[in-house]
User: Fold this.
Amino acid sequence: MVRAVHAFAGLPVNKTAIRRVLHLEDSRFDHELATFALKSSDFQYELSRVETLESFVEHVQTQPLDAIVADYRLPGFTAIDAWNALHSQPKGLAVNPPPFIILSGAIGESAAVDAVKQGISDYLLKDDITKLDHVISRAIEVHESRRAKVIADAELAKSERRLAELTEYLQSSIEQERAAIAREVHDDIGGSLTAVKFDLAWIVRNSKDPASLDHARSASEMLQHAIGASQRILHNLRPAILEQGLVAAVQWLASDFERRTNVRTTVHAANEAVNLSKAIQLVAYRTTQEALTNISKHAEANAVMIDLSDAEGVLTLEITDKGKGLDKTELDKPKAFGIRGLHERAKTVGGWLDVSSRPGVGTSIILSVPLKAGLSDYHAEVAE
Ligand SMILES: Nc1ncnc2c1ncn2[C@@H]1O[C@H](COP(=O)(O)OP(=O)(O)OP(=O)(O)O)[C@@H](O)[C@H]1O
Ligand SMILES: [Mg+2]
Assistant:
């Protein structure tokens, strides 16, 4: 026999495997008919008969099954009672029972519709018993494809969770790395430059030779330039301005932005002394920084407003520009990571980010962080 393999919903069907079917049927004769109907199938069937609800429950609990075929009306119970009994079984069976098909001499249309509504896979009249193989096959295929979808969905959710964890990890390791480089720049390069500065100042004070004085002075100028550069680098790596609090740091970012871009930028802070963990301050600072960078790169804005508040126990930071606005699809650009990174950063301190925009009117980036007692301290080490 040629064992054809066909696909349903992308799933190959294995025709060599034996199909184990439980037949809930009180008539031995009808069971023989069903067995006979399945004989001509391409599949090999193993049909077991039970006729009481107790033996049905015992069988489903102990035997692996590919499908259940049940008469509708049995002595003292119906197929629906068996279906319900199946659902009161331990987890696996209740959540993912095998396909259940009613094979009945006479099932009224409303009973059949009811049965299918309850989740029963299909029903077949005994007069059409020659179609039993086809009906079982279809039910198994639907069941398999549903199961495959559940597995695929779970895999997808798992890999999304992992990706979010990885991004979160990367964000905090970037901050740790920055802090380490900042320490090196400050202690090593900064220390050496200061020492050289003192030596040059000594030469300028004590040298009588005009040529040496000239060289020492130009070296001093270059040195001043190098000190300025290392302070700038330091500032970007680890904003010392945060030592003066988030409001001061945001104000500093705003005035630096205004100076560089000539775009009017106003800061409104409801409370000067917002008391926040370092981690939250850093997230808010980086959010402002990225939002302002985006405004200078993309918005073509003529004004920017920054609002900072800690009303009702939630830190809210809103950076709004009066610019060209953005379309939500722009946030999914393959090589744009700024706003995606901000979403992940917000999560590291138990917060979230909203982006709202109207074309031609402008864009708002809103960071919200609930300031529950203890939470901010808990996250403090993560971003430092
Ligand atoms: N304030 C804004 N006004 C108008 N468009 C914006 C604004 N902010 C972001 N966008 C749009 O949203 C896109 C995504 O921004 P995002 O910060 O994620 O990436 P990027 O700035 O392009 O690159 P990256 O931040 O990775 O260097 C931008 O490319 C831009 O098209
Ligand atoms: Mg950006």
DSSP finds eleven helices and 14 strands in the chain.
